[in-house]
Every structure is written in C-alpha cells, then in structure tokens.
Amino acid sequence: MARYILRRILQMIPTVFGVIAVTFILFNIVGGSPAAMTLGKNISPKALEEFDEQRGFNKPLFFGKWTKTRAFSDVVFAKNASFWRDNPAVVLEQNHNNVLLPPGTNFSIPLAFGLKKNAEYRWTILYYIAEPGASFKMSGFDKTAALTGKIWPLKPGDKRQTAEIEFFAGENPDGLKFSLRSEKSQLRIVSIRLRRGTAHFFDSQFAFYLGQIARFDFGKSTYSNQRVSTMLKDGIVPSLLLTVPIFLVGLIVAVCISLVCAFFRDTWMDRTFVVLAVILMSVNYLVWIIAGQYLFAFRLGWFPIWGFESWRYLLLPVLIGVISGLGDNLRFYRTIMLDEMYRDYVRTAFAKGVSRSGVLFRHVLKNAMIPILTNVIIAIPFLYTGSLLLEGFFGIPGLGNMGINAINYSDVDVVRAIVFIGALLYVAANLITDICYALADPRVRLG
After folding, report:
1. C-alpha span between 227 and 390 (Å, rounded)
2. pTM greater than 0.85
3. 74 in helix, strand or coil?
4. Does one domain contain both 165 and 304?
5. Residue where one domain finishes, among candidates 140, 175, 197
6. What band does 425 get if pLDDT is binned at 50, 70 and 90?
C-alpha cells in the first residue's frame, strides 16, 4: 500500500500543478486588474503600482523581458488621444488615427509618477516622417540616466516606422522630464508606449505565485492588513467546530433512517420518511436559518442568537445545518440501501435464515460502503471552507464568513488562498477515497 500511495502522490503532481495554473488564470487573467478591483478605479496610478509591486502583479504573466508600468498609460491615437487632445502645440487628424507635431516644437510627455530608481525602461514610438533629412529626438535623460539602446531606423518614408529607446532611470528618476521634438518636418505619431525591464526573462507573475506557494505565503489581506496565512489559522478552527458536527450528526442520522426505511420498505414508516425528506429538500436553506433564529433563539430563548463565545453558540447553527441537509442525505442513502436490498446475496441470506437486522447491518450496510464512502470523503474538503450562510447569520468568525467579507471587499489574496487550499484538499480526497475503497471492500485492489 505504501508503494501505491507514493505512486499516486507522484501522479497527482501534474494535477496539483494544474490546480495552481487554473487558480492563477482565474485571479490574474480572467478577473481583470486586482489592484483596480481592490482599491477602486479612482485611486492614483502610483498607489495602484505599489499594490501591484507588493503582490507581483507588475510583472509579465508567464515570461518576458518587458512589462507595463502605470507611470505612463499606452497612447494609441486611433483609440485614445489622452493628454494630447487639449494641447495647442499639436494637431489631431480628423480621424484621430495619429497626432501631428509641427517641426521645431518641443512637446513634453508627462508621467503619472516618478520612475523606479536604477530600473531599465524602454520607450517605443510608432511614427511617420515623410520629408528627406527630417528627424526627431527624445530628450529628458539626465547625467545619471544611461542610454542602453538607440533609436532605429530613423529613415524618412511613407511607411510606419518604429523608434525604441532603452535607458536606465538612474539615481534620480524623479527628475526625468521627457519630451519629443521634430526637425525639418512635421512628425506624425501613431502610438507611444513605455515598458519597464524585468530582472530576467522568467521574472513573471506565475513564477512569483509559485514562489509564494512554495513558502506557504499567501500574501496580505488588503482589508485587515493581516497575513492571509494567519487569518486562515484563526478561521479554520471555528469553521471545523461548526461543519464537523453537522457532517457527522447528519451522516449518522441519515444512514440510520435509511436503514429503517430499508427495513420497513413499502410501509407507512418508509413513505413517511420519504415525504419528510421531500419537505426538507423543498424548504430553502435561508428559511431554516431565519425561522430557527426567530423561534428558538428570539422567542423561546433556548439558544444565543449571535456570537462565538462558547459551545452553546454552536448548538443552534449545528441543529439547523443537520435539519436542512437531512433531506438530500436521506434520499441518497435510502436509494443505496434499497438498491442493495434487492440483490441476490440478500435473498440468499434470508433463505439461510439470517434475521432481517443481521442482513441490514452485516450485509447491506457493508456492501453499501463504497457509495457511502464516495459521498463522505468527497464532502470532507468542503468542511474546510465552512458554511457561508450559517457563519454570516450567527457571527461565527470562520473561513466562510471570511470568504464573504473577502468577496465583498475584493480581497483577492484571501479569496485566492481559500480557493487554492480547497482545491488541493479535493485532489487529496481522491487519494483517500481509493485507500478507503480497498479497506472497506476486499474485492477492490490497489494496483
């Protein structure tokens, strides 16, 4: 078995890597800018840049030499004219496909904030210069800002050309003031972009995310300013104290009642439990919570309404959790038990004189363990994430309540950590399921 477990763990490595990749894509690509979602779109570009830098969002997604910077938003004149629109020194063509800069005119390019000290940057300018001998230059590099590239090709012609200027920001990047100047000809500019150089080609958001996972560092909450790992440690205990009793009590009650249904199948007792299960399934989960709080906590005063100070505060939410989930569990386990009751081995056991209770507990329940284990073990990872509604309505500081707050406040690091750990637990549950199959049924062999 140890060899099988080791082999299965090795086989799970690609699956775990896939989980990491999927969670990365969901939160870094599909969801848009985490900084804008968390801080808001009206926050300053510098604050957004600092947020991205702390969490590795200011890097390329997977690999690359250059990455965007919020110090200068890309200007593509076919889409946006930005600060050029109101400047009298330039002329926007009627179709706004490019901007016309008269010869001998200096035009400054404002930055949203100062560049990063000693970082490498690159300006990329798409332009037209039609007249022979015409040229343009970009100024603003002080003595400490070293040019590492050159403008190319700088040949006049009717085709669009590219100029790339690579430079180091130097020791005093706040003093850099960039401007464009055309000589002997009108300069027609198509777009301007600024990129910051990365430490190396694979210095990316994905590599940063893998490094965090390897160190078990899930970042810092933007809402509470706490480490996410600390918040998870504090929240998992209240969640488990709530979900584990609900899970165990609900499982035992559902299995016992399903055995009773199998024992008295097609009788008034069996039909009564079926009707009860349908009623429990039909009532919304939220109705059970509100009705339980109003009747048992507020009107009768049997339970506390809100808080997490002692075990008494868990009694009512556990009761509601068991009752609300009993209908689904009872229908599922009753179907399993009745399916086993019509097997050939059951008829054989009755023919040999085995009592009805002996058939149920020694034969039916034992052979029904495979689907029961499947349902039980697959549900275990969800115990970790807690109960969103119960924790929210009863003021239990668990991971469910934490997840709701993180979603409401766009706390990306907290949501990403909860989703990632839950996904890993689900992958691990599949391995535990295979082992439990072999322990419960001798016919199942671990290959």
Report:
1. 25
2. no
3. coil
4. no
5. 197
6. confident
